[in-house]
Design goal:
Structural class: alpha+beta
Strand order of the largest sheet: 3-4-2-1-9
Radius of gyration: 19 Å
Shape: globular
Distance between the termini: 21 Å
Order of helices and strands: HEEHEEHHEHEHEHHEHE
Number of strands: 9
Strand content: 15-25%
CATH architecture of the largest domain: 3-Layer(aba) Sandwich
Oligomer: single chain
CATH topology of the largest domain: NADH Oxidase
Length: 291
C-alpha cells in the first residue's frame, strides 16, 4: 500500500530522531512507525554496562531521540502529542507520539535545520567566558519540559563538581584500565560553565524527561553557537552521585547528568558525523517484529 502524506511525514520525523547523539554513539533505540503515530523502543542489546551500569545513559539517549522526533514532526506541520511509558511502569514502548495537524512556522524549520547541523565536538572548547544570559537561556530551555537544571555557580560547588568527576574517573569499578569513556577525557578547569541536569526521582520515567530536556538544551546551545559535553561518569558511581546531590545540587533534585558548556571551536572544520546504524536496525513499520 502506498504511504499517504502523514505516513511520509512520520517516517521523515523518525529519521530526524535517528540523528540524536547517544552515549558512546550506541544508538540504543528503535522507532516503530504506525499509520498515525510513532513509538520509541529501547534496545537493551546496545547497552554499555561498563560505562552505564544502571541504564541511565541508555534512557537519557532515548529521551534525546524522542526530542528530535518531536522537532521533526513540528517541521512537518504536525504537533507531537507525546505519552511517556504509555503502557505504565515496565512499558515496552518508552514513548508514543501522535501527530496532530498544526500550522508550521519559520521557527519550526529553523529548529530542525539546527538539529541536522549539530555535531558533538569532543575537542577542547575555547576558554572564552559564556555570557550569563546565554547560560540562563540554556538552563531555562532544559527546565521548560519538566526537568530540573541548575548552573553550578559558586566556587565551592564548582570545586566539588570537578573533584567528584576526578574521583569517579579514578574509582569507577566498571572502567577497566586503559579504556576510554564515551565522552572522552574532558578536563575541567575552575570557571568552566557547568550545568547539572536531573529530576525529582532517579528512575526511568525521570530519566526520560531529562533526556528530552537534554535534547532541548542541545538545540538551544546549537542555535547560540555553544557546545555541550556530557560528563556522565560522576553519576555512574553511587558515592559520587550522592555527593553531587548533596554538595552541588544541595538535595534539590536527583542529578542525572553533568554538562560542560562552552563556545564551539572556531577556525576549524566541524567534526564529522559519527557512523549510524543501518535503518533496518533502528526503524521499522508497525507490525514488523524483527530488525
Amino acid at each position: 500500500m502506498r504511504a499517504g502524506p502523514r505516513d511520509r511525514r512520520l517516517w521523515w520525523a523518525a529519521t530526524v530522531a535517528l540523528r540524536a547523539p547517544s552515549l558512546g554513539n550506541s544508538q540504543p533505540w528503535c522507532w516503530v512507525v504506525g499509520p498515525s503515530h510513532l513509538e520509541l523502543h529501547a534496545v537493551t542489546e546496545r547497552a554499555l554496562p561498563r560505562w552505564d551500569p544502571d541504564g541511565r545513559g541508555l534512557v537519557l539517549s532515548c529521551g534525546v531521540s524522542l526530542h528530535h522526533a518531536q522537532v521533526g514532526l513540528r517541521a512537518c506541520a504536525l504537533e507531537p502529542v507525546t505519552t511517556l511509558l504509555p503502557d505504565g511502569p515496565g512499558s515496552t514502548p518508552m514513548a508514543r507520539i501522535t501527530g496532530v495537524p498544526r500550522h508550521r512556522g519559520a521557527e519550526d524549520l529553523a529548529a530542525v535545520l539546527a538539529l541536522l547541523a549539530r555535531r558533538t565536538d569532543r575537542r577542547r572548547l575555547t576558554g572564552w567566558p559564556v555570557p550569563p544570559g546565554r547560560l540562563d537561556r540554556l538552563v531555562d530551555e532544559a527546565r521548560s519540559g519538566g526537568a530540573c537544571a541548575l548552573t553550578v555557580g559558586s566556587a565551592r560547588s564548582h570545586w566539588w563538581a570537578r573533584t567528584l568527576l576526578g574521583e569517579a574517573r579514578r574509582t569507577a569499578p566498571h572502567r577497566s584500565r586503559g579504556s576510554r569513556p564515551p565522552e572522552g577525557r574532558t578536563t575541567l578547569r575552575a570557571g568552566d560553565p557547568l550545568v547539572v541536569l536531573g529530576g525529582p526521582r532517579d528512575d526511568v520515567d525521570a530519566w526520560l524527561v531529562s533526556g528530552v530536556a537534554l535534547g532541548r538544551a542541545w538545540l538551544r546551545a546549537q542555535r547560540d553557537d555553544l557546545a555541550l559535553v556530557p560528563l556522565s561518569e560522576v553519576v555512574e558511581v553511587p558515592g559520587t552521585r550522592a555527593a553531587l546531590r548533596r554538595h552541588v545540587v544541595e538535595d534539590r533534585f536527583e542529578p542525572h547528568l553533568l554538562l560542560r558548556v562552552g563556545w564551539r571551536p572556531i577556525g576549524r572544520p566541524p567534526e564529522p558525523s559519527p557512523p549510524r546504524l543501518p535503518s533496518t536496525q533502528v526503524l521499522r513499520p508497525v507490525g514488523r517484529t524483527g530488525g
